[in-house]
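I would like you to help me understand the sequence and structure tokens below and explain how sequence relates to structure.
___
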Amino acid sequence: MAGALSHIKVLDLSRVLAGPWCGQLLADLGAEVIKVERPRVGDDTRAWGPPYLKDRSGAETKESAYFLSANRGKKSLTLDISTPEGQDIVKQLAAECDIVLENYKVGALAKYGLDQASLRAINPRLIYCSITGFGQDGPDAQRAGYDFMIQGMGGLMSITGQPDEVAGGGPVKVGVAVTDVMTGMYASVAVLAALAQREVSGAGQYIDLALFDVQVAMLANQASNYLVGNVVPGRLGNAHPNIVPYQAFATADGHLILAVGNDRQFNSFCQVAGHPEWGSCERFATNAMRVRHRAELIALLEPVLQERTTREWLAQLEAVGVPCGPINTIAQVFDEPQARHRQLAVALPHALHDAVASVANPIRMSDTPVAYDRAAPLLGEHTHEILQERLHLDREQIDRLQRQGVI
């Protein structure tokens, strides 16, 4: 069955993670995504390893796991866009595409005539999405932006990690490049919204996305705590600023995440814990009071949680509807019965291997399900195919471009 976006063509000029993440999501939904890469070098993340994919014989290849994570379903076209011939090929492809994704520095593509104004003049229906560190304007527009520095500058690291006064306290980045990933998600929403608007107006539009803007938006309730309550949030480790008890606790053999979201759940927890009096205590009866008396309550809970194993707590609390869970390693995640049932690991064909493991797209659609057609491409794997089928170049023309280093 054709994907929801099987009628959409995407020209992906981006590299690393934010832009490629958007392109991969569009490919998962059925779009044809042509990834333009530098000849002989390719996307920076091709070299971000180990680990690297092993081929059918078990030998290590040059295909990094990082690159494979963000580029499945795409076609790779190697192209030197600094050459007039390369620029002409991009323009011809943009003329028949619906979306262009790029994450070059502000103004960098204008010197090649590949900026949004130039390409949208060729194709007025084109949706052109630029992803940068700080956006197209403002005092920081020319600065490069990388996920780690944006996590710090955008406030995330000020609320991630243990408080300074705790042993080992201090700012900590999130273990995944979440700003990049969320920027890719916002970019996906933006281009799909622009596609919907194009159905009404008939015209494409320009999208300006900044990692910094996305990181600030991601602060969600923490930003609202400051803007509404004038409270500057700090680091609480695994605790929650607005809900108690909502954190990780040590058990007899590991850890348990206790996520009590309302007063009923707290009373149920108290019953299981053998301390029903906590639920009726004025200091703990409501969430607002529990937040106010956080330190006192946590001091009471910690020794009790250590009396039983994680498995015992999970069974007893789940039976009465108290949200809780273990802290899994990534290996344990994919071994969870729910993960197996939902098939969160999928196998995709690759030029060097019959079944490359990949994380499933979480979107489940009844009529146009996600299709997993191919793993991330080899560098330039589809160059000849694209030039022949899309631009109708013959073998002699393609060989000449290759000799010139254009492809």
The longest helix spans residues 178-201. The two ends are 34 Å apart (CA to CA).
